[in-house]
Structure formats: structure tokens, C-alpha cells
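We were asked to recover a plausible sequence for a given structure. The inputs and outputs are reproduced exactly as logged, with field labels preserved.

PROBLEM: sequence recovery
POSITIONS: 258
GIVEN STRUCTURE:
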């Protein structure tokens, strides 16, 4: 009885393994044509439901060919779908503030065509192994649909024939709210220091000579939004001699340049 049971189990295990292996083999074949970008991604400016958004698109070509244009197909979803503006002239682009290490996409310009969820941008020849990026406008172009995960689309470069050169599938997600509000209490700070508490004239006072003391420095450190203001008050309203019990009154105006 043991031998019979072993024979029945063994073929079952083989069958299961073949079931698991088959999709892997099929997936590899499916990716073989057309060739894939070495790297490609879409980075949306906003992932919030129903929010207008721009984005950044980057690709690293893997196939040597002369590119003529680039096409991206945005996801289609159930519920509220993405809204892809059908006016090509609205799909303007920039090549500033790109990811670190990226090269501005040569020949990229305002879209030339919009068909359904597919937008076509012009391009010139790209170099294999170089990452190229561009930004598309967030005004009157793309509006997110309802919340959803693993929303897939495609992007590819084409020759003038047109024939696809490199292509990739991508996935993104839309969520209810994509912003985080950070709040904090910042206690006020105020640090006051003086360079000293006494100040002297370098020589005896003389009616025929103008003398000045070395002065003292007032330092203030604060996080106050409006900065700070300092006042100085003379306890005697003039120069007072303790020995003579006599005061020389201040003349003129006491201000920033007495």
C-alpha cells in the first residue's frame, strides 16, 4: 500500500510545478517584443482623486534607432476615469527641474496629437543608456480619476515609419488625498547679551577736543517674525560727575548718529 500511495503523489507534484513554471516562461516571451526601455517612469505631480495634475516622464533607451516621437497612454479605469485633454496644443512641456542626473529630452515640444488616452510628443534621436526626462503641464492637460491601485498604462518611442523602438508598461495609483499637513508650536526665543557693562573715555575730557568711548555691543538672537527693536535710556540725561555732583546736559538730538 505504501508503494501505491507514493506513485500517486509523485505525478501530482510534477503537475503543480509545471503549472507554476508555465506563466514565468510565457511572461518572458511576452516582454521580448518590442524591446523594453532600460528604465522608464511616470511621476505625477498629484495623486489625489479628481485633481488636475502635470507630471514628469523619464526613459532610458535600450535600442539604437532614430526616434521621431514619443507616445504615452494614460490608464483607463472603472468609476471616474482619467480625463485626458483632447487639445494637443494644451500639452506644453518644460525641461527644467528634472531628476538628478537626467538629461533634457532633445526635440521634445508641445504634443502633436491626442487620441483617446494617448498623447504624442515630438522627439529627436536619443542615445542608448542616457536617461532623458521632460515635464508636461499641469494646466488643462490631465485630471485624475477616482481612487484606485495598479492603474496601468504604456509608453514607447517610435521611428518615423512609425514603428515602436522601446516600450514599457507602468503602474500608478490614485488616492483620496495625497497631501500631509504638518503642524507644530514654535516657542519664541529671545537672547540678549552685552559686550560689557562699563565704558570709558581714552583720555581726560577737554573743551577743545572731541573724545569718544570705545562703545559696547548689544547682541540679540530671536526667532521673532518682525525682528527686534532696542531702546537706550540715559539715567542722568547727560554726563554726570559723582565727585563734583555736576551734570553736563546732552546737547543736540540723541539718535543713531549723535
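RECOVERED SEQUENCE:
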Amino acid at each position: 500500500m505504501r508503494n501505491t500511495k507514493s506513485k500517486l503523489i509523485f505525478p501530482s507534484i510534477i503537475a503543480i510545478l509545471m503549472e507554476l513554471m508555465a506563466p514565468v516562461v510565457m511572461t518572458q516571451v511576452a516582454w521580448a517584443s518590442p524591446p523594453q526601455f532600460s528604465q522608464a517612469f511616470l511621476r505625477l505631480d498629484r495623486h489625489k482623486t479628481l485633481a488636475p495634475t502635470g507630471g514628469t516622464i523619464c526613459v532610458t533607451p535600450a535600442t539604437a534607432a532614430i526616434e521621431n516621437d514619443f507616445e504615452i497612454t494614460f490608464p483607463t479605469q472603472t468609476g471616474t476615469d482619467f480625463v485626458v485633454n483632447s487639445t494637443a496644443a494644451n500639452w506644453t512641456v518644460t525641461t527644467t527641474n528634472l531628476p538628478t542626473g537626467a538629461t533634457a529630452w532633445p526635440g521634445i515640444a508641445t504634443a502633436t496629437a491626442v487620441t483617446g488616452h494617448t498623447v504624442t510628443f515630438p522627439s529627436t534621436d536619443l542615445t542608448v543608456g542616457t536617461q532623458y526626462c521632460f515635464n508636461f503641464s499641469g494646466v488643462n492637460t490631465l485630471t485624475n480619476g477616482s481612487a484606485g491601485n495598479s492603474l496601468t498604462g504604456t509608453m514607447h518611442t517610435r521611428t518615423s515609419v512609425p514603428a515602436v523602438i522601446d516600450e514599457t508598461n507602468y503602474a500608478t495609483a490614485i488616492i483620496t488625498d495625497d497631501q500631509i499637513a504638518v503642524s507644530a508650536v514654535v516657542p519664541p526665543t529671545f537672547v540678549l547679551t552685552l559686550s560689557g557693562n562699563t565704558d570709558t573715555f581714552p583720555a581726560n575730557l577737554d573743551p577743545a577736543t572731541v573724545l569718544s568711548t570705545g562703545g559696547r555691543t548689544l547682541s540679540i538672537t530671536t526667532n521673532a517674525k518682525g525682528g527686534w527693536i532696542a531702546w537706550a535710556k540715559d539715567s542722568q540725561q547727560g554726563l554726570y560727575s559723582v565727585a563734583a555732583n555736576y551734570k553736563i546736559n546732552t546737547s543736540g538730538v540723541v539718535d543713531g548718529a549723535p
